[in-house]
């Protein structure tokens, strides 16, 4: 786990170094302060060349209106997905979906208490 002092996580040397060592080109983003930390971190990841997927129903903010931030993330190239979409894409990726039980054991069951739409 990393602590950060910047809104954009990629400005933290330890985090940026860790991301570079992973050698991955895709990033999933979820978290708090959609219009500040999430937005700036997405922009930083995109600037580093990552393909960014923002899990919209796992975002929250103290601000009531974050639509402009989400629109900007999308406009800059981040793909908006839902937790359910992510889960089922992971299931499909594991041996064409034949090992959904392994994925469930690894990541846990799909939560049944997620609302259809989330107030961000």
Structure description:
With 120 residues, the chain is of the alpha/beta class. Helix content is 44%, strand content 17%. The protein contains five helices and three strands. Strands 1-2-3 form a three-stranded parallel beta sheet.
Key phrases:
120 residues, alpha/beta, Rossmann fold, three-stranded parallel β-sheet
Our measurement of the CA-to-CA distance between the termini, rounded to an integer number of angstroms, reads 25 Å
Order of adjacent strands in the largest pleated sheet: 1-2-3
State the helicity in percent bands.
40-55%
Count of DSSP strands: 3
Report the mean per-residue pLDDT as an integer: 86
CATH level 3 topology of the domain at 9-81 = Rossmann fold
Strand composition percent: 15-25%
Helix count from the secondary structure assignment: 5
Order of helices and strands: HEHEHEHH
Main pleated sheet? 3 strands, parallel
Radius of gyration: 15 Å
Which CATH class of the domain at 9-81? Answer: Alpha Beta
CATH-level-2 architecture of the domain at 9-81: 3-Layer(aba) Sandwich
Summing up helix and strand content along with how strands pair, one would put the structural category as: alpha/beta
List low-confidence stretches: none
Quaternary state of this entry equals single chain
Tell me, briefly, the overall form: globular
Supply the CATH superfamily name of the domain at 9-81: Isochorismatase-like
